[in-house]
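CORE FACILITY INTAKE
Project code: CF-77B
Contact: R.S. (postdoc)
Sample description: multi-component assembly, two entities in total
Requested service: structural model of the whole complex
Turnaround: standard
Below are the sequence entries exactly as provided by the requester. Do not edit them.
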Amino acid sequence: NAGVMQNPRHLVRRRGQEARLRCSPMKGHSHVYWYRQLPEEGLKFMVYLQKENIIDESGMPKERFSAEFPKEGPSILRIQQVVRGDSAAYFCASSLAGLNTGELFFGEGSRLTVL
Amino acid sequence: DAKTTQPTSMDCAEGRAANLPCNHSTISGNEYVYWYRQIHSQGPQYIIHGLKNNETNEMASLIITEDRKSSTLILPHATLRDTAVYYCIVRVGGNAGNMLTFGGGTRLMVKP
């Protein structure tokens, strides 16, 4: 029973390039959450998605960032025209049905480095 | 506007109990207390949660005061692998779909 799978685990991009981070939730989970953790800082909520719907994107930067969770396939966090300040660990979490038990299952994260 | 207050850091001797406090004086009646931890460079891990009653599982115990304004996470026999940042979070229960908001947490260092 695989956990939350994130890939790539490490990604290096030059300024101006695009970064795509993928998250496959646990089997049976239809709710996905993305968090960002800047170096030496805490986890910050970015976006909450259900299949094909964005439920809460209050933590997403207004520009360059987008997220999707299609009917088939993994959730994608896309960062266009990356800047050095985007360097961070991006964690994905999934839950069975909303957060009724409060238990989110986190992946191991994708670490983005912008040169 | 942090809903919880935790000490920044704590030390604990290996094999002893680690008691991590959390203040949540503005907690609402329908808010649960959740504990997560993050071991260095890994994704956060759920530990335990509770509403009013004390809770225990294979990882830890959660003691919630009667007025619910504070709680304590207890790791009964801390090991070196328990060194991590521990987050106390309050959120509404039920199928509300509310995200978890992480604060600064307590950095627990378990020492030999």
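Facility notes:
- Chain A has a mean pLDDT of 91.
- Residues 21 and 38 of chain A are 16 Å apart (CA to CA).
Invoice: internal transfer
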